[in-house]
Design brief:
Elements: H1 9-33, H2 38-49, H3 51-73, H4 80-89
């Protein structure tokens, strides 16, 4: 669905790295600006930092769609070996996940 909306894997990877940076920035800001203590700053940093793995996982899924989309959409029309050979013929390492 994200691919149909035009979202690319590089966008998701960038969002993951931005989440890491934003996590550190929010931790530092919360610790220095708010008088709530280190516990609250830690919670902010952890909350935002938990988004990074999700963005990276979505980036990997989109990368698979970008590189192996036509092969995956063909379904069972070709054998596994034919799909692997087609990937080698195109000069890339085929993924075994889609077959």
């Amino acid at each position: 669905m994200l691919r149909k909306l035009g979202v690319k894997s590089s966008t998701m990877y960038a969002a993951g790295f931005a989440s890491i940076g934003l996590s550190f920035a929010s931790w530092l800001t919360s610790q220095s600006v708010e008088q709530a203590g280190v516990d609250r700053a830690d919670r902010w940093g952890i909350f935002i930092g938990q988004w990074a793995p999700t963005f990276f996982a979505l980036g990997v899924a989109l990368r698979i769609e970008e590189t192996h989309g036509p092969e995956i959409s063909r379904g069972g029309h070709e054998s596994r070996e034919e799909l692997i050979e087609a990937g080698y013929a195109e000069g890339r390492m085929p993924s075994r996940a889609g077959v």
